[in-house]
Amino acid sequence: MKKMLKLLLPLILMTVSFCGCNYESQELKSRLIVQAIGIDAIESGGVRVTLQTLNTEMAGNPNSGANLGDIINFMTVEGRTVSDAISEAAKSVGKLPLLSQNRLIVFGRETAQKGIYSDLDYFVRNADNRATVLVAVSDTTAEDLVSAKMGESILTANSIEDILKAMQFNTNIINQELYKLVNKLECACSNAFLPVLRAEQETGGEKASIHFVDVAVFDKDQMLFEMKDDAVTALLMLHNQVKSGYFSVQNQEFSSETVMKIRHCSVKVKPQTANEGVLFTVRVKMEVDIAEIKTAEPFSINEAYLAETQRLCDEYIVSLLEKETEDCFVNHNADPYCLGRRFKRVLPKAFKGIPDWKANLPSVDLKVLSKVEINRVGNGAENI
Amino acid sequence: MGKMQKIGIWQVFSIIFLSRLLTVLTYTSIGEEKMETGDYFPSALFAGLFILLFSVMFFLQNKKYPGKDLTDIAYMASPRFSRAISVIYALVFILSMMVTLARLELFVGTIIFPENDSALFIIICVLASCYAASLGIEALGRVSALSVMISCAAFLFIMITMANKIDVTQFSPAFFDGLAPSLKGGLSFASRTVEILMLSALLPKINGKPMWAYFAWLTATVLSMVSLFFFVFGGLGKFALTQLFPVHSVAVLAEVGVFRRFDVLLTGVWILSAFIKISLLLYLQAELLQKSFKAEWKNYYVFVTGGLVLAAQIFLAGNFTDYFYKTDYIMRAAYFTAFVLVLPAVIMLCAYIKRRKSDEKNA
Predict the structure, then answer these.
(1) CATH number for the B7-355 domain, one of 1.10.357.10, 3.30.565.10, 1.20.1740.10, 3.20.20.70?
(2) What ipTM score was computed for the predicted complex, to two decimals?
(3) Could you tell me which chain A residue has the CA closest to the CA of B233?
(4) Which of the residues B37, B112, B169 would you substitute to probe the A interface, choosing the one with the greatest number of A C-beta atoms within 10 Å?
């Protein structure tokens, strides 16, 4: 009898686990699969939430031949809070929202200027939401960006995610995941930053294209100023996130311009106290290739050219970091580079002696030591 | 009477390591002492020291009364006293079981099935634990020895696949707000270590030197805490403290190639550890009760207690889920000290006095 029971038990468990689900609301088709969420503050004090959701009818039957519409749907709802608006959206379509697939959270420019923290809490608290979801600011309203249509079978959220992830090979683009943003917002000595994106309607068509504009730097949770091009490169570099990309130097003696391709970049920051002030020694070690030499006539690379190019690369990096950090520290009293956090970690006693880190920023010194190695010079190296 | 079941040192280590690992895995900062991320490392080391301090009576018990548990020692003083002690420690284990089950339910209800009722899952878990507990300590030892290897492999895999996400700048300096937060944190972690009592109750069933298992367990526990804190705060930074279950949240950072969302691995380890801990607690309380009451009712003690704990969880869940969140670390430490240090000291003192008296009589 006991043996029989032991045999029956796993069989019963197997049959139970092989059966289907009885929860209709759990079926993927019955879920509101959110791909992107846009948040705009409204005058009444509430929020306007724009959802980009997957058209599950279409996604489930792509080859059915029936006209099931685009692959994505958009809806805009208003509510007192983000969760209120999302539940309003769920009510209007009769589907349970699924946030675990969300790729993007977007704040409108005005909302970012007013403050974003109160609207972020929903995403921090919701166990369904991923900590690694990307966050961005729309150059206009979040609704414009989230409801931008890029084509019938194109997932806009996917495309935006791809644009933001281009920081892996572009030194002018930076992205920010939710947990990193929250960490910076919670740190009194750092300034959070978010990428700014813009949706532009293509001329004569219904399609829109999405562009990376710049980087918004926040004071507490309110947008303070924006960083462009070289400033973004410096930001990426000081966060040791430069993986690949291009920069150019003006090598007038030999050519009008030499474009360098970054193969590897490592940045180490060492905080110190010097002359009763704060000094950060930044060591940049970079391996580059010569990607392009802009010349009017054929040009053969030689030792002198290489030495001069290397010197110019070092000079470029030193000037880039010193200039951009100074601009941030002196003109905006902002530390998006999280240098204060490093200083606090390494020299906690000295950090305690500074009453207000951000007010102290103009007196902070940065010493950049650059070591650029040119690895591959390409064709025309026969003279070396 | 059947032959007493015994387990080896490796199995003892596995069973108590998994049990303590569950406490680390289910760590939540809600209701805990507020600490900077850098203070978690020294607090793990302090926890090790506090656990050593809390184990003083266990050391004494092992030295003076080798192979005897606290009810056996109390029996030397008086059989009635022994009965009272077995009931008290059975209740301590039952409470620990309730807390474990409540945390599991909280995890299942918020992370695995947020939109469904988690009662069915909890019922299956308790039924499986009752069955495992009824099989005895040998079966539990064997399954733990296997599970500890699966758990370590899962952790190692997650740690390797998220190693590139570690950002040391996210750590705040240790002792930035002084020594007190780390000490409080250490005491708070240590006061959740019911495994000292488990070891004390398991002493008659251990084949080999129990101290080897103890020190291996303590070292592994402190190391696992330090490494988990390193990956949690190095990966997620302070954001981890905003999450209900920080250790689980960090697993979302792990990815290799096109594969991601390895949090399911942690979920599996978590459920496995909870199953072993609940089974062990059920087994131990039944062992204690059968020593002082009817031995042939052992399986009834397991299933009746299982049923009671399940009913408490289903009908009074809110209260028990909140039990450890609402109690501050001083209350927890006081409760823990009473059962880990004070009561064992009283038991051993009574046994000592009784022996001296009988020695004097005989003389």
Answers:
(1) 1.20.1740.10
(2) 0.84
(3) A183
(4) B169
